[in-house]
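Just wondering, does anyone understand these tokens?
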Amino acid sequence: MKVEFLSHFGRDIDKIQDASFKNKLASIIEQVEQAKAISEVPNIKKIVGGGTIGTVVNRPKKSFI
């Protein structure tokens, strides 16, 4: 999938101190980038009235917010 990162997402990541959490997040981002469809990404849950957790899905690219 095509993935875009909004500018504040990068700033938020820079504030994270826990290296283990950053590694897990990097793994999740890699899974999303390699997936052909959002349904291929494990443990994605639909939010009532919204897209999916951490992403905007109603766009050609998936955006981490």
